[in-house]
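Q: Please design a sequence for this.
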C-alpha cells in the first residue's frame, strides 16, 4: 500500500470516528434534555397544611413550606424539600409529633423517607432523634438502620438500628448503648 493510500485510509477513519462521536453526543444531549423535561413535578405547592381524616376524625396533620408532587412518573412520589412537621393522632386522640428537614412519600409502597435531623416526640415525653427514619403508613411502623438517640422519663440511650410503633408502645432496638430499665 502506498503512502498516499495509507494516509487517505487513516484520514477517512479519523473523519468517520469524529462524525460518529459528534452525532452520538448530539443525540445524547437530546435524550438527556427530554428526560429532564419529563421529570418535572405535576404539582407544586407552597405553605402546605394537609389534614387527613378517617370517619370524621383527624388522623394526621402535615405542615410543610414546600411540596412537589411527581404523580406523572412511573414510581410516583411526593417530595418535601424544605422539611415537614407532622402530628399523628391515635384512636384515643393521643398525639405523636414528627419533624424532619426533608421527606419523600412513595405512593406505591406507602413508605415515607424522613431525612435530616429527624425528631419524633410522643405526648408521654418519649423522643427519638436520628438522621434518617422510614415510616410505613400501612403498618404504622417506624424503622431505621442509622444511629439514634432515644430519651424517655427513665433516661436516654443511643444505638444503631431501631424499629417501633407510632405510639412507642413496642420498641425493638439493635446495638444499643446506655442503661435501659425493664419491667421484666
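A: Design:
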Amino acid at each position: 500500500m502506498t503512502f498516499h493510500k495509507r494516509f487517505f485510509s487513516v484520514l477517512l477513519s479519523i473523519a468517520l470516528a469524529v462524525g460518529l462521536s459528534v452525532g452520538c453526543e448530539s443525540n445524547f444531549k437530546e435524550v438527556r434534555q427530554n428526560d429532564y423535561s419529563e421529570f418535572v413535578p405535576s404539582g407544586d405547592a407552597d405553605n402546605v397544611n394537609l389534614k387527613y381524616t378517617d370517619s370524621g376524625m383527624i388522623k394526621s396533620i402535615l405542615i410543610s413550606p414546600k411540596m412537589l408532587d411527581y404523580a406523572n412518573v412511573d414510581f410516583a412520589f411526593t417530595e418535601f424539600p424544605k422539611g415537614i412537621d407532622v402530628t399523628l393522632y391515635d384512636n384515643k386522640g393521643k398525639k405523636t409529633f414528627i419533624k424532619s428537614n426533608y421527606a419523600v412519600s412513595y405512593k406505591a409502597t406507602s413508605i415515607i423517607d424522613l431525612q435530616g435531623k429527624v425528631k419524633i416526640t410522643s405526648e408521654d415525653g418519649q423522643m427519638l432523634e436520628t438522621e434518617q427514619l422510614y415510616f410505613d403508613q400501612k403498618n404504622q411502623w417506624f424503622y431505621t438502620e442509622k444511629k439514634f438517640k432515644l430519651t424517655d422519663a427513665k433516661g436516654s440511650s443511643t444505638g444503631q438500628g431501631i424499629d417501633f410503633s407510632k405510639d412507642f408502645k413496642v420498641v425493638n432496638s439493635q446495638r444499643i448503648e446506655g442503661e435501659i430499665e425493664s419491667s421484666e
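Q: Thanks. Anything notable?
A: Confidence is low (pLDDT under 50) at residues 21-26. The helical segments are 3-38.
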